[in-house]
Amino acid sequence: MNKTLLHICCAPCSVACIRSLREEGIEPTGYWYNPNIHPYTEYRARKETLIAYADTINMRLEVNNAYALRPFIRAVYPDFDHRCRTCYQLRMDETAKFAAEHGFESFTTTLLISPYQQHEAIVQAAEEAATTHGVSFLYRDFRPLFQEGQTIARESAMYMQKYCGCIFSEEERYRKQKVIR
User: Fold this and answer.
1) How many domains does the chain contain in total?
2) Which of 19, 39, 113, 181 is the most buried (most CB within 10 A)?
3) Do residues 126 and 108 lie in contact, with contact meaning Cβ atoms separated by under 8 Å?
4) Phi/psi at 40 (5° precision)
5) pTM for the structure as a whole
6) Residue 18 contacts residue 28 (beta carbons within 8 Å)
């Protein structure tokens, strides 16, 4: 059986990815590492939702508990407008490193399911991390499964976040809302 580490950004995005991998005969081990998520209450809600979900589907989950807001901000400073690429690099590098150090054959990420993420930048960051750490990147375009996964997550009453996770995406979320006076 393919020993694959699945970086998970949140439980709702993981639903269809895990199901798809299992249908292929791949039993993924989940990996939580998301230093970008802010505030801490949001970080904790996403992490706890994932832990509970992993338990209900009998999936092994490795949790990197680093709430690393300051290192994340240092990494993206001063180029905040291109922070997503840096964020993908941080998360894919740490995932590939963990995979290599713990005997995984490959790694992938649930970030590849979101139509709102920069798909090609995620792939590039993952491929670079795979090369750096000597582990294979298992590419899957999970985007066609996005709606299905979101529907299942809602039906399961999972916590559903309203923004990507970083403080800047939260800011963008509020800027897009109309101000009612």
Assistant:
1) 1
2) 113
3) yes
4) -60, -35
5) 0.93
6) yes
Residue numbers of the domain that contains 59: 4-176
181 located within any domain? no
Tell me how far the alpha carbon of residue 32 is from its chain's centroid.
7
Amino acid residing at 76: V
